[in-house]
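Lab manual, section 2.4: Encoding a predicted structure.

Procedure: take the sequence of the chain (245 residues), apply the prediction step described in section 2.3, and record the output as structure tokens. A sample record is shown.
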Amino acid sequence: MSNLPIISIITVVYNSEDLLPATIESVIGQTYPGIEYIIVDGGSKDGTIDIIKKYKDQIHQWISEPDKGLYDAMNKGLKMATGDFVWFMNAGDHLYAQDTVEKMIEKWQPDTDILYGEVMLVDDARKELGTRSATTKQKLTNPLHWQDLAKGMVVCHQGFLPKRTIAPLYIENNLTADIDWVIKCLKASKKTTATELVLATYLVGGLSKQQHQQSLKDRYSVLKEHFGFWPNLWNHVGIVLRKIF
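Recorded output:
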């Protein structure tokens, strides 16, 4: 075990007493022993803290305090992490199976900077709707390069594990900060490894869906920063035309 990586799994939560227990169970039930589990709570007012305390012996670190939003909370988790890789599995997300991490690590090599895989979308009843690649226009690529994100996310953060040492803090006040973060990680990666596994289930919805117009503006801003004005404008013209036709 000493030569295998430690995976820091970080759960960000706020007032999610109904979603949190199953997320925790999916992490602490893993067959792979090298997991550091961190929970960052935003100062919940419901029963979330009671749930965290119930599992406190299986949680390595946790805090509960107000934050400035989702990405501020995720940054707190990054700063707390001490493992080799970081992985966000927020309230409502589940690791796909009990042996998911164990199978994933079989694809790891000492020079691996990023591990990534598919995510299964599920509805409120946890019914599987299909993988993200199967149900959206954005297909996960193999190999995966930062240029593959020119038209938006092709990989979910629930299926993306960078080494902690190459993972920057998230930009804040931007609903698509995850795109920026993934691109920066991929730019810093010398070896990005496809696990060819479904790594997690993702509960459809989320912050960016609830604030769709602002999300589109934020995405345009992030992609312009990385790809330049004209290439980004051209890519978004293609996105608009695809939606129309």
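Check your result against the sample. DSSP finds nine helices and nine strands in the chain.
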